[in-house]
Each structure stands twice: as structure tokens, then as C-alpha cells.
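Why do we care about 3D structure at all? Because function follows from shape, and shape follows, mostly, from sequence. That is the central idea of this module. The next example makes it concrete: a single protein chain, its amino acid sequence, and then its structure expressed as C-alpha cells.
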Amino acid sequence: MRDFKDRVAVITGGASGVGRALGVRLAAEGAKVVLTDIDQDRLDTTAKEVASETGGEVAGIRVDVTKADSVDALADAVWERYGAVHLLFNNAGVGLGEAQRPIWSLPVNDWHWGFDVNVFGVVYGIRAFVPRMIASGEEGVVINTSSSNGGLRSLPNTPIYAASKAAVTSISEVLHQQFLREGDRLRAAVLFPGPHVVNTSILASKRNRPDEYGAGDDNKPAYETMEDLVRTTGLKMALTEPDEVADFALAGIRAGRFWLLPESAENDQKLRERLDSIVARTNPVSAW
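And the structure:
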């Protein structure tokens, strides 16, 4: 898909960060953009800002991706309004206050919340949208947001997040293979924001944590912003901005790529080390 003009794009987690940046880029290129988020106030503000900034057609629809019926209702609303979807970005995600803590000490409610958003949000998006996309017979791409942390190699300081993103990569690979059986109209892609820590508000996502997941526990997160993360962990790197991620993601979609992975010699080397370790049947190499 090389031309986004008049294409219908649905972006979950679209009120901020990478989702917002994708919305800006697509609206500027003439796509009809539907931003979704659980935060109604922020979503309304973002939709207005993106429409004003780009002059494009932008709608905001509140969705809770942890609820299948909410995602189904989103699909109903989009098809009623536009009659098609060509780009589905299953992008909503949360970070948790799990950093630098033993995996055995993490509250079960944190696991449920992290997987319900990061994994089941993708599953519900696929279930609600893909059958209709297949039935339409139109060209389309389903893009699932993973992370190099978990999706490619797992950092030991964020076990819930890493495990959930590993699942997203696996789901995306399966989706790619199953789309091949359906013909050549639909494609899958998996997005790895980076190459460095992306400057988003994902670590503050606890503000939108539904009551049903409880409050976790009383342990204070090791860091609450991406700047804190870089400073606390001693990472010597610049932050990657969301618009950089949107740029290489859309370039990859145009090129027909499955792996929407930024260029990074350092990350490539770490990935090769992991793959070599697997092939050699050696113990896992350090992920740092």
C-alpha cells in the first residue's frame, strides 16, 4: 500500500505518543483517521488538534480495548461511517510499575491488566475488524505494536511488559501466515518503536487503570517518565520521538514489510547474539 489518500485508518491508543504521531502523518497524507483511546478528554483534544494541524478528516471514538464488546462497537461505528477499513493499528499499550522487581513479587492484577491491554487489545482488534476486511475484498494492512523488549529479546527489569510484547510478535507472525492463505489483499506487520527508548507517556498509563484491576500494590514504580528510565538505568542514549517511529512505520508499510524495525547496529548485534545462543543451545545471553 503506497498511497494513503482516502484510506480509512483506525489507531488504538491514538490520543498520545506513537498513536497520535501516526494519526498526524496519515491525516496529512489524506487518510480518514479514526483515533481511539480510553481517555475521553485527551482523545477529544488530540482529535481536534490533529484535524486542525493537518486539515484532514479525524474522528475520535472512546474504546476500552480490554473489552471485546467495546472493540466490536468501534468496528460497527467505523463501518457505518466509512464502509471500510484499510489500515488497522492495534497500538494501545500500557506500562506497569514493575521495573527492577523480582517476577515472583508482582501482583496478579498487574499481569491481568498488562495482558488485557497489550495482548487482548490486539486479539479483540483482529477479531472485530479482520473478518470484515476480508469480506470487503479491499487491500488492507493490520499493524500490531510490539516492542524490542520482549518482542525480540526480553529485558529482565520489566517481565510483564516483555512477556506481553513477545505474545504480540507471535500473534503477528501467525496472522501473516494465515493472511497468505486468504490471498494477497491483506497483510500483517509488527511495529517495534525505537531504536531507542521512545518518549511517550506509557509509564503514566496507570492513571487510566480500571478499578476492576485494583491498584496493584504499594510499591512505588522505579520510574514514571522515559527520562527517569534512561537516568535510573544508566542508559547512554537519546530518546526517540514518536514522529520518528511514525515515519519509519509508514515507510515500511509502503515497502510491504512485515518487520517494521528501525535501523540500529547495536540492536541488530544483540538480536544476532540471542539467535546464535538459541541455535547453539547455550544459556541465554545478557539482554543489556
